[in-house]
Amino acid sequence: MGGERTGWHIYILECGDHSLYTGIARDPGARLLQHNAGRGAKYTRSRLPVTLVYREFAGSRGDALRREAEVKRLSRQQKRALIASVALPDRT
Description:
CATH class: Alpha Beta
Number of helices: 4
Structural class: alpha+beta
Largest sheet: 3 strands, antiparallel
Mean pLDDT: 91
CATH superfamily: GIY-YIG endonuclease
Number of strands: 3
Low-confidence stretches: none
CATH architecture: 3-Layer(aba) Sandwich
Strand order of the largest sheet: 2-1-3
CATH topology: GIY-YIG endonuclease
Helix content: 25-40%
Strand content: 15-25%
């Protein structure tokens, strides 16, 4: 997951039960590893494995928190459309 810009990102994970989890991190790739090692959010710990399906550069932590709140307010269908709009090269 190299090539990520410096600053904060928002990311969406697809959990093992097909639910979606949205969060922020400076390094989404490293955060994904934490989630899959059971050291992430309580929500994802019981829904492993998780896969990174979306990431977006946000810049500052404040901008990332605002964008995270926007994305969390989207319906599942709207989140799926957002995910489909961006092809991650390392998404399987």
